[in-house]
Amino acid sequence: MDRPKLWTKNFLIICGINFFTHIVFYSLLATVTQYVVGHFGRSQSEAGLAVGIYVLMAVIARLFAGKIVDVLGRKKILIISTVIFFLAVLAHQFATTFTVFMIIRAIHGFTFGFLMTATAAIMADVVPDQRRGEGTGYYATAMNIAMAAGPFIGIFMLRVSTFEMFIWVLVIAAFCNLLGVFLKVPKESAPQDKPKVKLSFSIGDMFEKRALPIAVCMFSLALGYSSLLSFLSSYTEEIGFGEVATYFFVVYAVALVLTRPFTGRLFDRLGENKLTYPMLILVVIGYFVLSQASSGWMILLASALIGIGYGTVQSNYLAIAIKEAPQDRKATATSTFFILMDMAIGVGPYLYGVLLGYMNYRSMYSCTVVWFIIAIAVYFLLHGRKVSKRRVAA
Hints:
The chain has helices at residues 9-40, 44-72, 74-91, 98-126, 132-160, 163-176, 203-206, 212-238, 245-270, 272-291, 296-324, 330-355, 361-393. By secondary structure, the protein is mostly helical.
């Protein structure tokens, strides 16, 4: 029996939106602090706030976005948020004061939360259930590639041109998201085909309880991963290999992309446990190699292992969250998943900063190895053992 088609026009468009949105996100993530200090003459803490307010507003948006997307419709919210996202990117270069700049960052982050919730919900609709792991994996890979390319584009552009010229490059990227107008959302997800639901909010509306266990698993994983986003450069400088950090996420992305065609299919064929446990162990090994690194090749080896392991598990967890939720709650399930992931990315750097008050970077990464072992136990307790019981019962 032939497998249902994955690479449809809808799937290509939704992966493209995911890619271009995260190109904008990661490019600005790597450059905003430098711009705030240099252009507005603000302190490092205020520059950090310009990054933090974006993530905070994205999390707040996700609290409401799942229900709104489910009730009003995926495509409608996608188009509205795409237009506002585009205008917010454009507005960055017209901010004349730091206060105005912060307001723009807040609006941009809030819109990002809605845009990514609608995008992930549409992805859940257009990917066939028989290819859920593979499709979700490729969707996540678009974000992983942007994670490597975005900071490179941002840093390179600021070296050879101005921030204003750099923003115009991102405006073009954001404009590409308007391809969403050509999406054809499946009928079963259209709001007119569902029972009418009041647009009211409660804790149950903000979170999908069936997706919460795997979202908590993602929280534990992302909390450890946040140590890379904030302190990798400082750690590699401390051990004398600062220049290698430039290529860390490039190797990360390449390793993930090369293995994605195999890992996505294995998820669908073997089930979540048989793929997830080996990938979690790969993450532990990768962080152990990083914590013991005494040469550049060890750092790059760690990046490949972490890229394959973390990148695969992240997409596995998202696929599980979508699969566990009922059809009319898939947007809320993806929102629940990303709320907890974003919270971990936001809280993690602060916690690691506190930890660094008592130890050096190498010791901190050694502690992170232990944390990822705990993350494996969290997965077993909250999801893995349930899957095993289902298989035995079947």
